[in-house]
């Protein structure tokens, strides 16, 4: 039955712009619903008489593709059969239904597998009973109805579908089925599922406000559309009617002609809802400000002229896709009536697409479901210039009656369904294109469809060339269709097999795997070969989608079964380590190239994956550190590092898995291993290299007279330190590694500035001979068994005295010095003056008188020149002089000098004692450069630098931990630290010195003396603050604090404040303060509460006591020096007295002897 549509009026030549290409209609279920009076409106020729579908297969047999003796199938109008196939169709029809052919498992129309029956029109297809019944009904109506709906025809739902018994190609869900049943009973019931509700007008698309949303059928309409719908629905009965949306192309006209105006007489009304408004001309695209779709003045005039010359009955001006228009003639002329050729027109259109609007509209007639043109030459030009999707302006006639049946039938001469047209006089064209390699099997079956649809002849020449023969249009269309339908869907890819054995696994036993692959992908072909590099590959060609899946499957098989090689890049210098670490761990073949640092593994994909995972785990834990060896000393250090048979490396590595590689050519050492072990071995190797690196320390300058001492100990130092030590003049050079140089330097410093000692005396020249002895016997005796050296350097400025320098081991020097001092300290030298005439008588012959005077005395007399000098022990010297004066009273005594005195090492001045020497060195006013040790060990050096080095080693010297300044005792260090001239700080409690304030603060936190002192200071502070608020009577204890009106309240407050229970974190302090508060409360008083609260005063008192102690010590030292001087003076006077007494006692004997001698 034909359906009546109520469509909104629209302007001429306008295409519908409703979204999704659908329009809103009032759908009547049958012609009887409209009424018998409407039956006369169905005056058209009817589209159901013949359905001419636009398919190339219409002009060929649907079974054998033959084009001879075709007859159309009355049951399926888009199929035709040749005479042989028609006979085969008639035979099973007469015999009745047959069973389903083998290999068919589903209905060709709905896909159902139940009750299949063969289709008599096509024996290769089957239908289920429902589809067979619907096919029989459609056969009676000369039309068909297919069950193709898989979703609800109204809302698109997939759940609970129910087939429409009247229209078998439609299905409905449960909600839509109920709404459909209700709509058949009443027109006003137009509800559909709420899922189709919209927030905009369902007709014009305008956004509706909340007041304009009318949800009568689940959709919304604006006011204008709602009024139009009410007017349309008022004139029609609601029985059997439903409002819905259907595609515009599915609606057919019911009349052969229509009036040029509407019922209200409006003809030029072109307004459409504002939702479809456009701002440009619908033909030329000019920018306009009109509402709705509009035209500029030029286009409007052209439209008016076109409509004036043509009857408007059954005609509408619009634009349709170029590919939807078919030719009506089989051949056309090569030029237009005005003489212009088709090629020139095609060139104009290609150069400027706007020229199409200057060409008159082509006339198009809708005939048997197709759009057939009456202007074939213009359509040919458009097709050659544009793509099929191009919209071209046409004058569309609803059917051939509206255009003219006689004229239409006279022009309808096409033989190929209107797809092609032949140009009279056009020569045939031949083109050849190359085929992809080995693609002829894929292209050949698909050339038949291209040849039938286009008309050109396509042949494959050889296996690599495609030849196309036909007109130019046919050739171009055929090549275009070939590229789109064949070449774009063909693909060739290759999979590297990596292993020739994989080919057999892919093919399988007796081709089982290859056959399974072919069944899964029927449009593919699998071949084997080699690429340009000789690598075996599998070539897969065919349909694009199938080739991709087949490539994936083949690649998976290759990956699973192929034995191939894979390269892994190892860290630098790690080849030997991985050779040892991977030993007996990997179950596949592998090789490691130590030079390039790469590893090759060979096996299947699974084996290689396991091996790669194992190697990557080792690489993540691997670490390599490099040490550079100094260039000049590199060979020796490397040999030293290796040791005999690698003993040193084994000792450095220990129990770890670390490897130490010595690159002799590069001068580097590589430590390889795991991260947690490399660090420790690296530190050991680095320390070993640093210790064994040969360095040269700064040269050491020897002390005066220390050459022999160092030379004697040099062999011992070399043996202990194993360093190279050279002495050049007064400079010592040390070479060796860090440890050797350090040991040698420490030993030499200890020798020079701790063990070596020099003692210098000023000796009277008259005693040098006695001190040396005959042949140096006395010196040998003193040096025997001692490590000392006694030297007597001359004094060029003073000839009467000589320096005696004793150097060597400190203990031996002190012992010999005390012996010499004890020997010479009792001797004196006295000068004697007399007249020259008396000299001879005094000496007498050969010194007989002098010898008699010296008898029994240990004196030496130098009588070669005047004055005479008498040297010896003080008593003997005075006895000798007494004897001489008895005989010669005219003898005069001259200057008396000491035989020995202590000399300053710097200025060589003599002093009576070591204390005077130290006092002289300590005094800055003397200008002497000598320096003494501040530790009080008695060591004196000629320079401050040498003394400083001695103080570094002296155990009696105290040092500041921050500035390393030297002090005599800890009290001096503490005073220096308290002055805060450096960063060192001392603990207030225990007076311990620390290098900085942070260390001292951490110590003070746990120092008990400091905490006690701080507690006392805090207690004194709080008691002092409390006493400042009390009266003096309460402080002294003259009265009880509880009786004092002034202090009672304050003491009570202090008791509450300092009660131990209220101060749990300061319980000790609170207890002491509370005890003092209680004493004040009871009237006991406090003893000098401010004394313990002032640490500054206490510090000042301590400093004052220190100054007094030092002053007293200096006074005591001065008294001792004075007493020593007086003692020496008394000794000398005692010696003179003894000498005079001895002289008096021996005077008679001496006189007699002298007289006898003279006689």
What does this structure look like?
- By secondary structure, the chain is α+β, with helices and mostly antiparallel strands.
- A five-stranded mixed beta sheet has the order 9-14-12-13-10. A five-stranded antiparallel beta sheet has the order 33-34-32-39-40. Strands 28, 29, 30 and 31 form a four-stranded antiparallel beta sheet that branches.
Compute the CA-based radius of gyration.
67 Å
Shape: elongated
Q: What is the tally of beta strands?
A: 46
End-to-end separation in angstroms reads 199 Å
Oligomer: single chain
Task: Estimate the mean pLDDT confidence.
Answer: 75
Percent helix range = 25-40%
Biggest sheet: strand arrangement: 9-14-12-13-10
Q: Kindly name the structural category.
A: alpha+beta
Instruction: Note the total helix count.
Output: 38
Which regions contain 5 or more consecutive residues with pLDDT less than 50? 1-22, 29-58, 91-103, 137-149, 185-199, 208-218, 232-238, 266-279, 287-293, 306-311, 1088-1094, 1148-1159
Topology:
Elements: E1 22-28, H1 31-34, E2 71-72, E3 80-81, H2 83-95, E4 117-119, E5 122-127, H3 129-140, E6 162-163, E7 171-172, H4 174-185, H5 223-234, E8 241-247, H6 297-309, E9 315-321, E10 325-326, E11 331-332, H7 342-351, E12 362-367, E13 370-373, H8 376-385, E14 391-397, H9 400-403, H10 405-411, E15 422-423, E16 429-434, H11 440-443, H12 447-454, E17 457-461, E18 465-470, H13 472-485, E19 490-496, H14 501-507, H15 512-520, E20 524-530, E21 536-543, H16 544-561, E22 564-569, H17 575-581, E23 589-593, E24 598-603, H18 605-621, E25 622-628, H19 634-642, H20 647-653, E26 659-663, E27 668-674, H21 675-692, E28 695-696, E29 700-701, H22 707-721, E30 724-728, E31 731-736, H23 738-755, E32 756-764, H24 765-772, H25 777-783, E33 788-791, E34 801-809, H26 810-824, E35 827-833, H27 836-843, H28 848-854, E36 860-862, E37 868-873, H29 874-887, E38 892-898, E39 900-903, E40 910-911, H30 914-922, E41 931-932, E42 940-941, H31 944-953, E43 958-959, E44 966-967, H32 970-978, E45 985-986, E46 993-994, H33 997-1006, H34 1008-1027, ...
Helix pairs in contact: 7-8, 12-13, 22-23, 23-31, 28-38, 29-38, 34-37, 36-37
């Amino acid at each position: 039955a034909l359906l009546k549509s109520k469509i909104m009026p629209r302007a001429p030549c306008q295409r519908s712009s409703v979204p999704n290409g659908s329009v809103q209609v009032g759908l009547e279920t049958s012609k009887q619903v409209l009424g018998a009076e409407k039956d006369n409106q169905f005056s058209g020729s009817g589209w159901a008489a013949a359905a001419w579908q636009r398919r190339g297969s219409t002009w060929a047999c649907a079974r054998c593709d033959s084009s001879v003796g075709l007859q159309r199938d009355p049951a399926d109008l888009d199929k035709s059969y040749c005479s042989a196939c028609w006979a085969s169709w008639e035979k099973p029809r007469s015999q009745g239904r047959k069973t389903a052919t083998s290999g068919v498992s589903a209905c060709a129309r709905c896909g159902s597998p139940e009750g299949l029956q063969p289709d008599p029109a096509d024996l290769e297809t089957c239908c289920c009973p429902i589809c067979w019944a619907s096919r029989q009904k459609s056969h009676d109506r000369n039309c068909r109805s297919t069950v193709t709906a898989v979703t609800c025809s109204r809302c698109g739902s997939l759940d609970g579908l129910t087939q429409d018994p009247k229209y078998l190609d439609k299905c409905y869900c449960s909600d839509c089925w109920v709404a459909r049943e209700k709509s058949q009973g009443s027109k006003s019931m137009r509800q559909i599922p709420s899922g189709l509700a919209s927030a905009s007008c369902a007709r014009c698309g305008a956004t509706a406000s909340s007041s304009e949303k009318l949800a009568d059928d689940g959709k919304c309409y604006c006011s204008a559309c709602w009024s139009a719908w009410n007017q349309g629905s008022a004139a029609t009965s609601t029985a059997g009617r439903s409002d819905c949306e259907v595609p515009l192309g599915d609606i057919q006209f019911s009349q052969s002609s229509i009036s040029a105006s509407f019922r209200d007489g409006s003809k030029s009304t072109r307004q459409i809802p504002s939702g479809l408004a456009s701002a440009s001309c619908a033909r030329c695209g000019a920018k306009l400000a009109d509402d709705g779709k509009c035209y500029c003045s030029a286009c409007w005039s052209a439209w008016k002229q076109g409509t004036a010359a043509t009857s408007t009955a059954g005609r509408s001006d619009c634009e349709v896709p170029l590919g939807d228009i078919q030719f009506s003639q089989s051949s056309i002329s090569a030029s237009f009536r005005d003489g212009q050729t088709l090629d020139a027109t095609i060139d104009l259109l290609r150069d400027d697409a706007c020229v199409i609007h200057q060409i008159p509209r082509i006339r198009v007639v809708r005939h048997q479901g197709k759009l057939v043109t009456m202007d074939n030459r213009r359509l040919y030009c458009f097709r050659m210039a544009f793509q099929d999707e191009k919209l071209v302006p046409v004058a569309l006639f609803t059917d051939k009656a509206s255009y003219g049946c006689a004229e239409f039938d006279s022009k309808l001469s096409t033989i190929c369904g209107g797809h092609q047209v032949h140009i009279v006089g056009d020569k045939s064209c031949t083109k050849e294109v190359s085929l992809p390699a080995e693609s002829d099997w894929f292209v050949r079956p698909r050339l038949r469809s291209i040849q039938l649809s286009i008309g050109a002849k396509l042949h494959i020449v050889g296996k690599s060339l495609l030849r196309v023969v036909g007109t130019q249009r046919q050739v171009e269309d055929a090549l275009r269709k070939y590229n789109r339908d064949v070449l774009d869907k063909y693909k060739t890819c290759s999979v590297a097999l990596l292993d020739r054995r994989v080919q057999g696994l892919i093919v399988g036993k007796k081709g089982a795997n290859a056959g399974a692959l072919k069944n899964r992908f029927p449009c593919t072909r699998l071949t084997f070969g080699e690429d340009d590099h000789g690598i075996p590959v599998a070539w897969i060609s065919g349909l694009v989608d199938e080739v991709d899946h087949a490539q994936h499957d083949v690649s998976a098989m290759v990956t699973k079964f192929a034995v191939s090689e894979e390269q892994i890049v190892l860290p630098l210098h790690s080849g030997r380590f991985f050779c040892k670490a991977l030993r007996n761990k990997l179950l596949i073949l592998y090789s490691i190239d130590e030079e390039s640092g790469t590893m090759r593994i060979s096996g299947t994909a699974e084996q290689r994956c396991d091996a790669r995972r194992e190697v990557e785990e080792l690489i993540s834990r691997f670490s390599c550190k490099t040490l550079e060896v100094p260039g000049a000393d590199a060979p020796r250090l490397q040999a030293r590092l290796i040791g005999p048979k690698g003993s040193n490396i084994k000792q450095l590595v220990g129990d770890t898995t670390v490897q130490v590689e010595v690159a002799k050519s590069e001068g580097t050492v590589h430590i390889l291993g795991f991260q947690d072990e490399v660090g420790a071995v690296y530190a050991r190797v680095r320390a070993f290299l640093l210790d064994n690196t040969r360095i040269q320390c700064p040269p050491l300058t020897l002390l005066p007279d220390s050459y022999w001492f160092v030379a004697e100990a040099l062999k011992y130092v070399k043996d202990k330190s194993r360093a190279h030590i050279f002495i050049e003049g007064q400079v010592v050079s040390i070479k060796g590694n860090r440890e050797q140089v350090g040991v040698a330097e420490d030993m030499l410093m200890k020798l020079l500035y701790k063990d070596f000692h020099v003692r210098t005396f000023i000796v009277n020249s008259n005693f040098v001979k006695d001190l040396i002895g005959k042949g140096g016997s006395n010196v040998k005796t003193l040096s025997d068994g001692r490590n000392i050296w006694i030297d007597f350097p001359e004094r060029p400025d003073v000839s009467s005295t000589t320096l005696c320098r004793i150097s060597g081991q400190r203990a031996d020097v002190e012992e010999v010095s005390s012996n010499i001092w004890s020997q010479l300290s009792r001797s004196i030298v006295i000068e004697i003056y007399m007249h020259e005439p008396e000299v001879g008588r005094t000496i007498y012959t050969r010194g007989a008188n002098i010898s008699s005077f010296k008898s029994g005395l240990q004196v030496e007399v130098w009588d070669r020149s005047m004055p005479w000098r008498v040297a010896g022990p003080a008593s003997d010297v005075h006895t000798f002089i007494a004897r001489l004066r008895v005989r010669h009273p005219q003898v005069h005594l001259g200057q008396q000098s000491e035989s020995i005195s202590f000399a300053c090492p710097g200025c060589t001045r003599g002093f009576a004692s070591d204390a005077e020497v130290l006092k002289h060195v300590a005094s800055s006013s003397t200008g002497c450069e000598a320096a003494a040790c501040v530790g009080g060990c008695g060591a004196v050096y000629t320079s401050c630098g040498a003394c400083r080095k001695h103080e570094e080693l002296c155990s009696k010297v105290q040092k500041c931990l921050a500035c390393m300044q030297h002090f005599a005792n800890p009290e001096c260090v503490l005073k220096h630290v308290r002055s805060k001239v450096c960063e060192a700080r001392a603990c207030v409690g225990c007076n311990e010195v620390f290098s900085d304030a942070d260390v001292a603060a951490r110590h003070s936190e746990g120092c008990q003396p400091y905490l006690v002192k701080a507690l006392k200071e805090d207690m004194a502070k709080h008691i002092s603050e409390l006493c400042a608020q009390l009266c003096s009577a309460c402080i002294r204890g003259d009265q009880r604090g509880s009786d004092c009106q002034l202090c009672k309240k304050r003491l009570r407050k202090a008791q509450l404040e300092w009660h131990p229970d209220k101060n749990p974190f300061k319980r000790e302090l609170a207890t002491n303060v509370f005890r003092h508060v209680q004493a004040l409360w009871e009237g006991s008083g406090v003893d000098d509460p401010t004394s313990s609260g002032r640490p500054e005063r206490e510090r000042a008192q301590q400093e004052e006591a220190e100054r007094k102690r030092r002053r007293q010590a200096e006074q005591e030292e001065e008294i001792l020096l004075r007493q020593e001087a007086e003692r020496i003076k008394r000794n000398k006077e005692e010696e003179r007295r003894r000498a005079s007494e001895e002289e008096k006692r021996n005077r008679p004997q001496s006189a007699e002897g002298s007289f006898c001698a003279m006689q």
